[in-house]
Structures are given as C-alpha cells and as structure tokens.
C-alpha cells in the first residue's frame, strides 16, 4: 500500500513552461508509450531526454512479467497433482525459453522500429481492421492471465484469514485494479522490485521449515516411489506434452506485457540483455515452488492440522502452496511466506490489466476511432478499460477450476493466432491483409473445433489418440494446437502471395481489392515505373543512380532482411540519415 501511494504521488507532476507532462501517456525510450507514469519531459519541439538518462530512469522488469501468482502457485500445483508431477511442470523452462527467443529474434526489430504497442506492426502493414481483429486474442490472453493471478491470490488470502475463496478473489481483484488505476506503469515497475525480493526471500525461508516437519517424508525418498512427484511422460502422451511445451515457449513471446517493457527500453540491445537476464531469473524463481509442490506430495496430511481428506480429494490442489506454508511451517514463517505469495500474485496483476488497456486505448480507440483524441481523453479511456478488463478477469477467476488451467489458456490463442502473424509481419516479405485474415480464421477454427476440457468444450474434430476423461470430456492427445498454429502461418503466406499474383497479373480487376491490400499498395510504384518507361524526354544524367541488382535466392525473396539487420531503423536514426543525405547533396 505504501508503494501504491508513492506511485500515485509520482503521477502528479506540475506542468512546466516549455514542457508537456503526461499523466499516463508519456514519452518512454524515445517514443510515446501509453500507460506509463514515468514522467519524462517532452519539450514543445518534440525532443526528449538523452537515451542514457532515459535508460537510467526507466529500468525494465521483464522477469516479473512471468513470475507471478500463476507461475508460482501453478508450478507448485503441477508438481503436487498425482499423475502429473515435475515432468508436466513445463512453465518454468517454457517461459524462460520464450524470453530467450524473444531477446534473440523479436526484441531488436520491435524496439528499433519505434513501435509503441505490440499491435503497431500489424496495423501498419495490415491496416486498422486487422489490428482490431488481432486485439481480440491478445485481450483474451491477458484476461486469462489476469484471471489466473486473481484466482491464485484469492486462494492465498482465503488460507491466510480463513474466508470464502470467492470473497477473497473479489477483494484481491479490487486491490489490484485500484492500484493499477492510480499507479499506471509506476505500479508495474517499482512495485515489482520489492515484490520479487519478497517472493525470493519469503519462499526460500519457508522451504527448510516445511521440509523438516514431522509429517513430511524425505522428498528424495518419495521421488523414487512409483507415484513419484517427479512424474512421468507416457509414450501416448509425448505429442500432447510437446504440444503444450511449444505453446508455452512460443506462445509466451507475443505479449503486450513483455513488449511494453521491450519498447520502453533505452535501446534494442538493452532490451535483449534484459530478456536474457529475465530468462535466468524465471528458472531461479521457480525452484522454491517446485520444492513446495514436492513437499506437498510427500506429506502425510493426517498428521497435520489440515487432516483428511488431503488437498487433492478436497479439490484444493490449486491451493497447495499456501496450504503447505500454513500447515507445515511455524506461524511467524507461515505469515512471511504467505505474504511473499501474495506479493508474487500482485507482481503480475497490474502488468496484465495495464497491457490490455494500453492496447485498446492506442490501437483500437485512438488509431481506429479517435485519431485526434487528447492525452487526457486517452487516459480516461485507459482508466475505464482497466476497470472493465479487471472485472472480466475476476469473473473468469470465479468460474475457473484450476490456476494451471487458466495459465495454459492464457497462451493458447496467443500461440495459435498472434505468434504466426507476428512471424509474418516481422520476418516474411509480401504478406498482406488477405493472407492475415485467412490465417487468423483457419487457426481459430482449428483451435475451437479441437475442444477445450477446462471450458468443458467438446471437440468437433476428433484427432488420432483422443479419449474421454472421468467427466466424459474428450481429451486430444494429438498436437492439434501446433497444427493450428502452423496452418495459420502457412495459410497467411500462401493466400498473401496468391492474392498478390492474381491482382498484379490482371486475373482479378483492381476494384475487387476491397481491403486495399495489394493494388493500392503497389499502384503508385507501378504508375511511376510506367511513366518513366513511356516518357520521350528522358535525360539519362538526371536519373538517380541505381544499384546493380544482385542474384536473387529463395531466402532473399521471402525473408525480411531488415528484421535481422544490426542497423537501428528507429525514426530517430532515419531522420538523421535523411539530414546527412541532404547535406551531402
């Protein structure tokens, strides 16, 4: 609460002569980043502070993007649940690798091109309509993620003060929404520092006391038993395991919560370095949660105050981490550890809600409906959407039966729809709106028809290896999520090039290009070429020098080399190059 009040004070900055000071829409890292309360002066000339000073005043906290309630509570739940175990606790490695891949391939092109939100490249290449469509799966991902956070926090508080879990979820959500409304990006950045410290210290202090409880068997001994907390992967489940692993690893990249930190970094290189450090931090922060899950699986609950039946039979497996801290640790250690869990949950709640509201305010409201909206208007739109999105996530948390299930769902649509679109928009040349829409629809249809047990959605397409669980819900062993993602990716490329060929060859008249994705894009270039060739008054010495055309390869034809280039193509650099060329002439 002290951090909340401090961050709110940081928002109230008096206007100074010659400066513009935004409350929640300000220049960060050389660009206007919605949802930021870091008050960096933007002068009337449009100039901002130096990159060095910006980098010092805007530290990024990417590790706290993933290390939250779903990450800590969900990992402990997966290790504890019989039949799953550590082998199925894929999130620590999956999300760590997603940060590594994000740093290697995605942070640099996104930051160097001066984007403000993750949806900017889509709207720039595919248009506002496509940006609006892609906002839907991005929003659903953020909502499922926030719901997992609220569910974990509600479970923790209900254990601490012994109240109904639904009431604790609602109260927890209100706290998170309120301090996000007041603090903005300050509440994301500065509270994360303290919260991560509390998580690391609180959980590690609790582990030795829990392991030394008389009711807890040696976790090394229980690991060698038949029903081990290590878990196992049956041959029939290998493809399902790989499907979920790729979902976490690749579906953990295209998130606004991640890119809002990348895009507010002082440089592309700085964003990459922070991504790699965050990946290591994610693994380290998962270790105490894994040990607590193993302790829960090795405990004779009849010898504790918790009694029988055990958490699995009471359907409280999602609360195993706070239960272990409450019943296997001394009171003073339990209090500190449960406070750490609460901090873990809060460290991601504000980030998730703020990410969704910033995308809506900029990419939907401002760019699609109100291009001339004032900064104050955008701030109020963000505040309203923070409340609405927070309320929606709270409703999902109340209806959910598993924190880990919500956690998987948060990456589901992001992996199947947004990730292939992000690959195409950054690395594949020639894709257009027609291909993007086709890929979007194909991926969405294949995902929905595959069914979803957590939502009690029965499949319409039964892939090889399906079976019915105890609730008569059909489970797919076939990796249909990865199939849907690959189908979306290749459909985007194929339809884009088909549409381009049909319009440019004259097979389809220009009037049928109703999305202005092919003809309108290349008509001006083609008109200039035609005029030049047919002109009778061409003076060769007045023509601009043309670089010789090198031999083309398949890779150069379909790959966007600028995405892999070391040259910073940010707006600042481009304008500097233009001035240099002008002065040379």
The structural class is mainly alpha
Shape: globular
Strand order of the largest sheet: 1-4
Question: Termini, distance in Å?
Answer: 60 Å
Q: Tell me the total number of β-strands.
A: 6
The amount of helix comes to 55-70%
Oligomer: single chain
Radius of gyration (CA) equals: 26 Å
* Average pLDDT number: 76
The major sheet is characterized as:
2 strands, antiparallel
Q: Provide the low-confidence segments as ranges.
A: 1-64, 524-544, 546-552, 567-585
Q: Topology as H/E string? A: HEEEEHHHHHHHHHHHHHHHHHEEHHHH
- The percent range for strand residues is under 5%
| DSSP helical segment count | 22
Secondary structure blueprint with pairings:
Elements: H1 2-11, E1 19-20, E2 25-28, E3 31-34, E4 42-43, H2 51-57, H3 63-66, H4 69-80, H5 91-112, H6 120-126, H7 128-161, H8 165-183, H9 185-211, H10 219-223, H11 238-251, H12 256-262, H13 268-297, H14 320-328, H15 331-369, H16 375-399, H17 403-427, H18 433-449, E5 467-468, E6 474-475, H19 480-504, H20 519-534, H21 554-558, H22 571-584
Antiparallel strand pairs: 1-4, 2-3, 5-6
Quick take:
The protein is mostly helical and 585 residues long.
Features:
585 residues, disordered C terminus, disordered N terminus, mainly alpha
Q: What does the model show?
A:
With 585 residues, the chain is mainly alpha-helical. Helices cover 64% and strands 3% of the residues. It contains 22 helices and six strands. It has helices at residues 2-11, 51-57, 63-66, 69-80, 91-112, 120-126, 128-161, 165-183, 185-211, 219-223, 238-251, 256-262, 268-297, 320-328, 331-369, 375-399, 403-427, 433-449, 480-504, 519-534, 554-558, 571-584; strands at 19-20, 25-28, 31-34, 42-43, 467-468, 474-475. The model is unreliable at 1-64, 524-544, 546-552 and 567-585 (pLDDT under 50).
């Amino acid at each position: 609460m002290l951090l909340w009040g401090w961050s709110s004070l940081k928002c109230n900055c008096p206007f100074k002569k010659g400066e513009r000071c935004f409350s929640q829409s300000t220049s960060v890292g050389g660009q206007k980043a919605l949802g930021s309360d870091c008050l960096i002066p933007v002068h009337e000339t449009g100039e901002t502070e130096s990159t060095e000073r910006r980098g010092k005043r805007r530290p990024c906290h990417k590790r706290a993007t993933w290390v939250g309630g779903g990450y800590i509570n969900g990992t402990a739940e997966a290790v504890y649940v019989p039949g799953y175990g550590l082998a199925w606790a894929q999130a620590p490695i999956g999300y760590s690798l997603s940060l590594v891949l994000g740093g290697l391939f995605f942070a640099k092109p996104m930051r160097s091109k001066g984007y403000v939100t993750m949806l900017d490249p889509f709207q720039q290449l595919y248009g506002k309509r496509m940006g609006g469509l892609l906002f839907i799966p991005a929003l659903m991902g953020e909502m499922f993620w926030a719901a997992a956070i609220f569910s974990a926090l509600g479970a923790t508080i209900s254990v601490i003060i012994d109240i109904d879990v639904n009431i604790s979820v609602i109260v927890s959500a209100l706290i998170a929404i309120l301090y996000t409304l007041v603090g903005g990006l300050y509440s994301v950045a500065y509270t994360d520092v303290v919260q991560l410290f509390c998580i690391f210290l609180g959980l590690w202090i609790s582990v030795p006391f829990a392991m030394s409880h008389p009711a807890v068997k040696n976790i090394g001994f229980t690991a060698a038993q038949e029903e081990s907390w290590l878990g196992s992967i049956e041959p029939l489940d290998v493809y399902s395991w790989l499907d979920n692993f790729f979902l976490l690893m690749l579906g953990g990249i295209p998130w606004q919560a991640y890119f809002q930190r990348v895009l507010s970094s002082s440089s592309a290189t700085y964003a990459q370095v922070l991504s790699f450090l965050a990946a290591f931090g994610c693994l380290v922060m998962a270790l105490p949660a894994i040990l607590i899950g193993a302790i829960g699986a090795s405990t004779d609950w009849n010898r504790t105050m918790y009694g029988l039946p055990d958490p699995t039979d009471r359907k409280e497996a999602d609360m195993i981490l706070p239960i272990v801290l409450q019943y296997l640790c001394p009171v003073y250690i339990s209090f500190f550890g449960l406070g750490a869990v609460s901090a873990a949950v809060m460290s991601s709640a504000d980030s998730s809600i703020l990410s969704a509201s910033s995308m809506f305010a900029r990419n939907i409201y401002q760019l699609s409906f109100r291009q001339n909206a004032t900064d104050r208007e955008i701030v109020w739109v963000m505040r309203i959407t923070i409340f609405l999105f927070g309320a929606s996530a709270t409703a999902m948390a109340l209806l959910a039966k598993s924190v880990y299930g919500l956690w998987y769902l948060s990456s589901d649509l992001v992996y199947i729809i947004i990730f292939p679109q992000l690959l195409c928009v950054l690395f594949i040349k020639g894709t257009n709106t027609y291909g993007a829409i086709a890929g979007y629809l194909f991926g969405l249809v294949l995902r929905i028809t595959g069914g979803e047990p957590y939502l009690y959605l029965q499949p319409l397409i039964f892939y090889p290896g399906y079976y019915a669980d105890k609730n008569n819900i059909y489970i797919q062993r076939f990796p249909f999520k990865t199939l849907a993602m690959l189908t979306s990716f290749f459909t985007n490329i194929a339809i884009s090039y088909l549409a381009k060929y049909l319009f440019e060859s004259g097979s389809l008249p220009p009037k049928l290009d109703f999305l202005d994705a092919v003809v309108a894009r290349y008509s001006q270039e083609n008109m200039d070429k035609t005029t030049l060739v047919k002109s009778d008054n061409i003076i060769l010495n007045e023509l601009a020098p043309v670089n010789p055309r090198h031999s083309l390869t398949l890779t150069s034809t379909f790959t966007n080399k600028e995405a892999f280039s070391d040259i910073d193509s940010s707006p600042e650099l481009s304008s500097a190059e233009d001035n240099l060329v002008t002065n040379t002439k």
